[in-house]
């Protein structure tokens, strides 16, 4: 059993590049895998490993400047969720592309999972899912608006085009673990929206704490690791990943004519060239050869 730890924290790192090597070395020494992002604005990522390994990494992050009180969310996975460990340096730990957005200055009102249903069912509240379109496709809250954005960077343009629809409305937003809403709520406050709310701990905390019988969540929640999706109680969902486009699939989707393992699925078959598909087939061949030798061919799940 692997402990899966999703974390983020906004703080000002004076020299985030200097933090990379010690953090990576510690993760490798403790056989922790996953991806962590470091930027001037903080840290973000998901890692997995043993109880002792995760505890060691958490203790190290708590020792970083401004991170003493950072929060994280844990769940479990039966199989190893990540093939390797990476610590990357980035301009942003979640990319919105708005230089004036600063979650450390002010954000929307946090709403605990137990109070979320009451808020989003209020007639004067509009609920917006800030995740990408392929994430929303497998699950979201009842009545939530899907901006149909391909990336989080598209959200400001979507808001500008649609903001008049939400005049005199309170705005509630949510995402997987909460990090996108730290930026999206700050962005909306900067746009003059007065009443902005977001789900504390994100969908993952809601699915962990709210009983299924009381839930307004429908479907599964996409996660960026080998589990692909989780449901109520953070139980692993039924989805698998198309390794060509990295979108979630149901097992029965592998029976469709468009599906070729590691090469295409019904969602991406028209998005790649024959040259791409030839390259994907070679990658898939190398993976099968590695498995036959009892080795792990790393393709990455980042």
Kindly describe this structure.
There is one protein chain. The protein has 302 residues and is of the alpha/beta class. The chain folds into three domains: 2-89, 2-Layer Sandwich (Alpha-Beta Plaits), CATH 3.30.70; 109-219, Oxidized Rhodanese, domain 1; 248-292, no CATH class. Helix content is 28%, strand content 22%. The protein has a five-stranded mixed beta sheet, covered by helices on one side. The chain has a four-stranded parallel beta sheet with strand order 6-10-9-7. It starts with a strand and ends in a 10-residue tail after the last helix.
Keywords:
alpha/beta; 3 domains; 302 residues; disordered C terminus; Oxidized Rhodanese, domain 1; single chain; Alpha-Beta Plaits; five-stranded mixed β-sheet; four-stranded parallel β-sheet
Quick recap:
This protein has 302 residues and is α/β, with parallel strands linked by helices. The protein has helices at 17-29, 51-62, 113-120, 133-136, 155-162, 179-190, 202-209, 274-292; strands spanning 2-10, 33-39, 42-49, 72-77, 85-89, 109-111, 125-129, 139-141, 170-174, 196-199, 217-219, 221-222, 229-230, 240-241, 248-249.
The ordered H/E elements are: EHEEHEEEHEHEHEHEHEEEEEH
- Could you list the spans in which at least 5 consecutive residues all have pLDDT below 50? 297-302
Largest sheet: 5 strands, mixed
The averaged pLDDT comes out at: 94
The protein's oligomeric status is single chain
What is the distance, rounded to the nearest whole angstrom, between the alpha carbons of the first and last residues? 21 Å
% residues in beta strands:
15-25%
Number of beta strands: 15
Taken from the alpha-carbon principal axes, the silhouette is: globular
* CATH H-tier superfamily of the largest domain: Rhodanese-like domain
How many helices? 8
CATH class label of the largest domain: Alpha Beta
């Amino acid at each position: 059993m692997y402990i899966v730890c999703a974390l983020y924290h906004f703080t000002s790192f004076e020299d985030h590049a200097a933090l990379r090597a010690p953090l990576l070395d510690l993760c490798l020494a403790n056989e922790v895998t996953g991806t962590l992002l470091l930027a001037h604005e903080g840290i973000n990522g998901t890692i997995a490993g043993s109880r002792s390994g995760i505890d060691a990494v958490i203790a190290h992050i708590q020792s970083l400047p401004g991170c003493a009180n950072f929060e994280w969310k844990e769940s479990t996975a039966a199989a190893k969720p990540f093939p390797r460990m990476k610590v990357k340096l980035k301009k942003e730990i979640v990319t919105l592309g708005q230089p004036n957005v600063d979650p450390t200055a002010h954000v929307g009102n946090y709403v605990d999972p137990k109070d979320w249903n009451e808020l989003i069912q209020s007639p004067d509240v509009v609920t917006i899912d800030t995740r990408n379109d392929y994430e929303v496709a497998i699950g979201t809250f009842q009545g939530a608006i899907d901006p149909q954005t391909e990336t989080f960077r598209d959200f400001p343009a979507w808001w500008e085009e649609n903001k008049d629809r939400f005049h005199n409305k309170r705005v509630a937003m949510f995402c997987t673990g909460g990090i996108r809403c730290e930026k999206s709520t700050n962005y909306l406050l900067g746009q003059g929206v007065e009443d902005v709310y977001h789900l504390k701990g994100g969908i993952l905390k809601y699915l962990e704490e709210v009983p299924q019988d009381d839930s307004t969540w429908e479907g599964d929640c996409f996660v960026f690791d080998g589990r692909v999706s989780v449901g109520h109680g953070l139980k692993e969902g039924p989805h698998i990943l198309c390794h060509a486009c990295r979108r979630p699939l149901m097992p029965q989707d592998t029976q469709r004519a468009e599906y070729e393992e590691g090469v295409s699925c019904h969602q991406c078959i028209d998005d790649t060239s024959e040259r791409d598909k030839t390259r994907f087939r070679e990658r898939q061949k190398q993976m099968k050869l590695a498995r036959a030798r009892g080795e792990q061919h790393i393709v990455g799940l980042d």
